[in-house]
Amino acid sequence: MGLSDRVVVVTGGANGIGRAVAEVAVRDGAQVTIVDVDAAAGEATAVDLGVSFRRLDITDGAAVAVVFGEIVDAYGRIDVLINNAGRNAYFDPVEMTEQDWDDVFALDLKASWLCAKHALPSMLAQRRGSIVNISSLHSRLTTAGMFPYAAAKSGLIGLTRSLALEVADRGVRVNAVSPGYTRTAVMQDFLDRSPDPDVERRILDVHPLGRIADPLEIAEVVCFLASDAASFVTAAEWRVDGGLGARFA
């Protein structure tokens, strides 16, 4: 799929979709570094998958600069960046504080720019590279009780398109993947918070494919977009949602 010997960085790579992306990228021949704030999970994933791990808070611009510089020093370049790390948000729009707002957007939007900022110099220098931002179906459809998650994920789609146009003439592609419901710890947290004991059945009932995605199914699409097999795809948003976004519920 065109990832052989590529140097790939995956944020939030210790769990869920990020871990699955690292697993598929390794299978496809990449040299993978995962970054995550969860040191224990990151170290365990590194051993399990045979990848490198660096603990990093990607909302800290100075720390991102240091760690990404270390990755370039170690491998000579960064070919692919997967901006996967993120969080859900469950705030009341009146009761939430400015700090709550800033914390959500720092991770779900600003951090993707910070990581791109420090991965791009290597890509631009070699006139080749790929960035894939993990957005969400919430960028187009959303639900009450998860404010302001949709705003941040919608912003990530705008960032994808804008950044793609800025760097296209220098050989770098930027795309987004918007997963629907996927079997991750983040989804389990959503289910656990729901007051509806039948919430999972209701979710399954409205899915055209009648099931929830495995993280590896999302990862296959992410790695395709990151690879040379998608060499003419940029500024695109690919929905991987089992058809949920195409129907009335």
TrEMBL record:
Describe the family membership recorded for this protein in Swiss-Prot or TrEMBL: Belongs to the short-chain dehydrogenases/reductases (SDR) family.
Supply the CDD domains for this chain: SDR_c
Q: What is this protein called?
A: SDR family oxidoreductase
Q: Which Pfam families does UniProt cross-reference here? A: adh_short_C2
Which SUPFAM superfamilies does the protein's record reference? NAD(P)-binding Rossmann-fold domains
User: What InterPro entries would the database entry show?
Assistant: NAD(P)-bd_dom_sf (IPR036291), Sc_DH/Rdtase_CS (IPR020904), SDR_fam (IPR002347)
Query: What PROSITE patterns does the database record attribute to this sequence?
Result: ADH_SHORT (PS00061)
